[in-house]
Amino acid sequence: MSNLPACPLCNSEFTYEDGGLYICPECAHEWSAQAATEAVEQARVYRDAVGAVLQDGDTVTIIKDLKLKGSGGVLKVGTKVKNIRLVDSDHDIDCKIDGFGAMSLKSEFVKKV
Question: Coil, strand or helix: which one is 34?
């Protein structure tokens, strides 16, 4: 198993090194080894709908009615979500909402309390 970084664009694990560059064979993206180390050092900053920085354990409120896939329910505006956990995926927030259970939300639909 190689210790080369995954492609920052498509997350492919099949990258290879050519001189001082890393190359992704799937999307043809090229980046330098220096850029790869700088990207790892930079932590992602999660922001809510109004630009406030979010952190693990924060309490947020929902700013828009959100339809739930599968159950047919709706999360109403103003629903308070406590003790959020930030994750690096399509939906930025993992949480538990009373009456609905475990859920993933996008940070653009919440506001920090």
Answer: helix
